[in-house]
Amino acid sequence: MIASSRYATYFHVHLVSDSTGETLNAMARAVCARFENVLPIEHYYALVRSPRQLERALADIEDAPGVVMHTIVDDTLRTALEEGCRRLDMPCIAALDPLVSALSRYLGAALTRRVGAQHALDTDYFNRMDALNYAIGHDDGQGGAELDQADVVLVGVSRTSKTPTCIYLAHRGIRAANFPLVPGRPVPEALTRLSSALVVGLTISPDRLI
Question: Does residue 154 contact residue 200 with C-beta atoms inside 8 Å?
Fold first, then answer.
């Protein structure tokens, strides 16, 4: 029994945001840190502002059952996400709702429906947004023509967390792209022509992959 307590419990947590996702990311990490030997496998869905984007997120959520946390403002998208999670029998947590409701009652003030209202429009903010747009546009081998603009390029087989890592880096203003490594398929020629980007290979153990 003593030896078994050393093993960590892994679980999937899906973070769905209609903005950069920084607030949700910080909240999820703060909560998970309260539990010993519990390690979240984080999946990021930033800038989710259309039904099509939400459908893609729900498809990924279905593939990796776990906990869904969100900061979606739009009522239609919120309802679609909650109904999708209900259909998949997964908990769906509106992370900011308890705080917003309490402050609304205390202040007697109306809520803003503006997405990303907490972000100041400074240079760092625009850099992060640009990095996020770049990461989304260069996910899974897309956007090869602009690959030389990347700060970091991640390569690895499927399920080595290339996309979540790119989104994480983008939150810090780092332009990151990723390429999948597929058995029997040669490495893309665009990778061999890079001169300034840092190319990083991601690996995963067979046990973790299973």
Answer: yes
For range 53-76, the mean pLDDT: 92
Domains identified in the chain, total number? 2
Are 148 and 195 contained in the same domain?
A: yes
The Cα 22–Cα 46 span in angstroms is: 9
For residues 96-119, give the mean pLDDT: 67
**Is the same domain home to 102 and 147?**
no
Residue 55 Cα to chain centre, angstroms: 15
Q: Which amino acid is at 133?
A: N
Gap between the Cα atoms of 180 and 157, Å rounded: 5
Provide the CA 127 distance to its chain's centre, in angstroms: 18
Contact 180, 141 (CB under 8 A): yes
Predicted confidence at residue 118, as pLDDT, reads 47
Residue 40's domain comprises 4-107
